Amino acid sequence: METLQDFEMAREERLWDGVSLWCSQRAQGGIYLLGYHAEMTLKSAYFRLTGLSIAKPIDRYVLQTALGKAKLLGVSTPHEGYHGLRFWCDLLVAERSARGIPLPSPLLNILTHQVDIISSRWSVEMRYRTPSTRPLDLESTVTAVDWLDRNFVLLYT
116 by DSSP, 3-state: which? Predict the structure, then answer.
């Protein structure tokens, strides 16, 4: 069973793996791994915000609790098998607001814009598809993922 620490280690490794493929002009694989990094970044930020212990397993119960919390907070974004970038972004934003520490509007606008860019180019199902990603898609995804990575700590503090 994965823990928050595992999520954060995977987050770091997939960033470098994705950047490596980006440098090799392997767009489809690069976007897939960078999207995975974005997913782990948003999940990790949410779980850190909620005070989850770094060593606590993130099992089905923890994920279902997050889904229940989303419903309580009015987040109706589909969770897409708990992989949805918009879901984790919206849940993180709603949780911060519920705790009385909303993201400042400029940061919120940039966050949602970057997540929209990544989620428009990435899905878990990419691993099963024939590559169809353009180099321009990779460039914009790299830029959005870079922003998300550089602002990771701001998302949960």
Answer: helix
